[in-house]
Structures are given as structure tokens and as C-alpha cells.
Amino acid sequence: MAFEALPERLAQVRAELARLAPQPVTIVAVTKGFGPGAIRAAMDAGLADIGENRVQEAVQKQDALKELTGVRWHLIGHLQRNKARVVAGRFDLVHSLDSLELARELDRRSTTPQRVLLQVNVAGEAQKSGCPPEQAPMLARQVAELEHLRLEGLMTLAPLTDDEDVQRRTFRDLRVLRDRIKKEEGVWLPTLSMGMSGDYAPAVLEGATVIRLGTALFGPRGGETP
Asked: What is the end-to-end Cα distance of the chain in Å, rounded?
């Protein structure tokens, strides 16, 4: 079958989490670039949280897998305002809210509570999405006041580097920012979505409650058999 190595890879990740993380950590299986077979394999392995980066690709997979029950869909990629109408009601958790304008549009398009995370560009990288850290406290309060959105936490991406000190500093800064938002704005955000295949270990050491894994579970993109 496809993805024969997935159960073993997942067992290795879970063993690493048990060693490193005192807090519960949710594994989101990132299936960007893979076909629906990757999602079926993840579900068979006990992974119900499925992450997609691109709205259109995710919608196509959702439509192709209508018979699957129990899938929890995560949108982890950048969300444009003109796609808010498509996203509303289709995803259990949107990780990439990064502006008040987008939040208001998603709120307007939602008829039921929509769980969201605020994406923060902690490292200030020009090529990455996310609100600046200094704007996050006020934005968190404003989003929390919207009728249909349920703000649950923060998300960030660390710089692409093998330097664990840089990775840990980025993740630590997000955790500190979360605590600052609670103190200054009275908004408690229990979820910290941070860490991917190459840096999830430093992330969980700094308090990640959600990690987003693609190649660590499925191998290189394009590895799915027909």
C-alpha cells in the first residue's frame, strides 16, 4: 500500500514527543502536495488532524473524501481575503489569520463559530506572512471581540536554519508574546502552533501544543504511489 513507512515514522515522532514534551501535543499531518491517499493513510494510522496549505487543493481533497468521517481539517497556509468565503465552515482550525481586515471578512462569511489562530511573524522575515509581534496584542483583542471567530492561540514559522538556538529563540518569543497578551489584553490563548518536520523538537521544548508535520511522516513530496 502507499505510505508503508508512515506508522513507523509516526511511532518515532511520538516517542520523541514523549521524551521532550510534558504538555500534550497535537500532530497535524500536512498533506500538501500529496493526493487523497495520504489522508486515508494518516487516518488509518490514527491521525485525524489534517493540514493543508492551499485553499483550492484542500477543497478538492475534501470533496474527494466526503466518505471519510472524523477528519479535522486545518488550514495552515496564507489566507487571502477573497478566499474567506470558501474557507468559512470548511476548516476546524485556521492557523493563518494575520490582519483585522481578514478577520472581519472571515467573521462576516461565517455563520457558525470558526476557530482561528493568529499568525505572528516573530522573526520579522519579509518573505513570510504574519502580523508583527508589536501589533499582536491589540489584534488579538480585536479578533476576540468578533461574533463568529473563536481565537484560540498563536502560530509562527521559525527561520529556515539548522541553528537550534535561533529556532528556540523564535518559539520562545511566541510563548512570551502569548503570556504578554494575557497580561495586557486579558485574552488567554492556550494553543501554540509552532514547529514543523525540521524543527518540531525545539518547538515542543518551548511549549508548542500543535506541530505541523509533512515529510517527517510521509517522506519527500511525490512519494505517493498511484
From this structure: 10
pLDDT tens across 141-167, in order? 999 999 999 999 999 999 999 999 999
State which fold the 6-218 domain adopts.
Answer: TIM Barrel (3.20.20)
What are the sequence ranges of the domains in the chain? 6-218
CA angle 101/106/112 to nearest 5° reads: 150
Grid cell at residue 223: 512519494
Length of the chain: 226
Name the residue type at position 21.
A
- Give me the residues paired with residue 129 across strands: none
Entry pTM: 0.95
Distances from the Cα of 58 to the Cα of 23, 44, 53, 86, 186, angstroms: 29, 19, 8, 11, 34
Q: What is the pLDDT of residues 72-89, one digit of tens each?
A: 999 999 999 999 999 999
Cα–Cα distance measured from residue 226 to residue 224, given in angstroms and rounded to the nearest whole number: 6
**What is the Cα–Cα distance from 144 to 223, expressed in whole angstroms?**
41
Three cell numbers written together for 9: 515514522
